[in-house]
Amino acid sequence: MRPDDLQSLTQPGSVSVRGDLVLVNVATPDVAANAYRGGLHRVALDGGGTTSWTWAERDLAPRISPDGRWVAFLRVTAKGKAPQLHVMPADGGEARALTDLRLGAGAPVWAPDSRRLAFTSRVPEAGRYGAPLVEGGDAPTPDAEAPRHITRLDYRLDDVGFTADRHARLFTVDALDADAEPVELTDGTCSVADPAWTADGEAVLFLAERDFGAAESFHNDVYRVPAAGGEPELVVRTPGAAMLPVALPDGGVLFYSPEHAPGTAAIARNTSLWRFDGEHLARLTDLETVDCEKAAGAPVVTDAGVLVAVRNRGAVELRRVPLDADAAALADLELLAGERAEVKSFAADGDRVVAVVSTSDNTGEVQLVGGGTLTDFGSTVPLRPAVELTGAAPDGYPVHGWLVLPEGEGPHPVVLAVHGGPFMYHGWGFFDEAQVYAAAGYAVVLPNPRGSAGYGQAHGQAVVGGFGTVDVDDVLAVLDVALERPDLDAGRVGVMGGSYGGFMTSWLAAHHGERFRAAWSERAVNAWDSFAGSSDIGWFFADAYCGPSLETQRAMSPLTYAEKISVPFMVVHSEHDWRCPLEQAQRLFVALRRNGVEAEMLVFPGEGHELTRSGKPRHRAQRFDAVLDWWSRHLA
């Protein structure tokens, strides 16, 4: 896969099923237009492939109504426009817009009556984000808006921006009434998320910050509000940062949540499935061994149990949890899909279960659980499979990772790529970066050191208060396992990574620089003391992982050891990154240049922390070109 092959990648996303109708949205980067394209595709249950179901610029988040007659989805009509909610008949026809909201709509959720939809939307304060100061008046330009009065620490979010002046609110709309307008059910006191209808359709569940955001909190609770309007009421006081509630027919509620004490953040904690029966709260999955992956979607209730996606040693597996489970361990949960693969989304209708599944050499396919592959969206671009690596760290702890090899006998130059998080993972799913580097002739080593997700909560917690210790041991141990192969060149190794991976790149260059020819550090944390105040999450993240002592934070900061770095060093950052702000790059770059290091800096305008995954296609392609140029100069 070459950088210009980026626009040849078709990746399936959210899937929905009702009866014989299976719909999935797909996305393809369009580098020339600098936008993402893709519509909804219908997947044949007989394995006959797919047909385009919509042809707009970009459609996503399809949701089929309970009676199977309608499909609601989000549509982006032009580059830069916010997605709006649309509906169309399930047997085909014209789509009709249901919203025209200034900041767009969130994913729709059907009511049991197959008529009403619930969704969230950010509502701007008057005089901001294009909203006029007075109805019918002109909106001030961004540079003429009034100053923001900020009184809280949680006032902004990377890739979203300032939040307190545009809280997300809950809406419903009658999808079958052409004249209906969205009805607002919450007042914007704080942001709400993840709507779900009660089984009787009389109310909508949603998540909101504890006590409706009276103060900064790391806990979300489940609330309900009458669909006809009224005051929200608390349903469940949850054990942590709850996500994706689902109403049960008996009036109970399921939801995902890590468990953490009030006033503490959910740092490196497994996400469990919980059930509230109206009186008692019970954890249905084991705390240590089961880590639910919310990115794959909400839990889905079936007659045979609850479907959830679980992170497990680099895989994201579809598992079934009995509704009466008592903190069931991973080994006790039936595996349905995703073995040595990554489940991206899933849905069910009765006993029919479909899932979007990705592997290292396949961007994604739609599977009928128990019935095989329905269609394959895999790219026509040749992709390389991943080779599993196992070994042991110096203290005997088992280590795990992957190797993506280029074609040919070698010996190949090596790129060690460390993931972000740190409570994330490399895995069995498709990873465009590894494919691009392997196609250019580099063997790509992908370690999951202690601190990563999917290996038990203790594994994730192992680096709390200990960055730069056992995580470094594990990364280098996985690299050593790879370098035992005769087709890899131990004399030509580079190191790279983003976010926590950027931290690790800077740290390795300072403390183990003799092992590497050059380094590429991207959107990195380099100085915890300034990160604490400049990052959107810094006010809690630095203390949670490093501790509150400034002396300790500086001891865990790569910038403290900048004078030890001597290898050629590329510092890469996005101009609008609020997760790891630009100053993190600037401080390191200046220190390296002043020390005489062959250091360069690459800054992408208009991008945030997610550049490599969801940034503008043109910037993603330009970044790939720059990466390959860097390694061609230093690993030749």
Automatic annotation (TrEMBL):
Residues annotated as domain Peptidase S9 prolyl oligopeptidase catalytic: 428-635
Superkingdom of the organism of origin: Bacteria
Official protein name in the record: Dipeptidyl aminopeptidase/acylaminoacyl peptidase
MF (Gene Ontology): aminopeptidase activity; serine-type endopeptidase activity
UniProt keyword list: Aminopeptidase, Hydrolase, Protease, Serine protease
One Pfam family in the UniProt entry: PD40
Example GO biological process: proteolysis
Keyword Signal: no
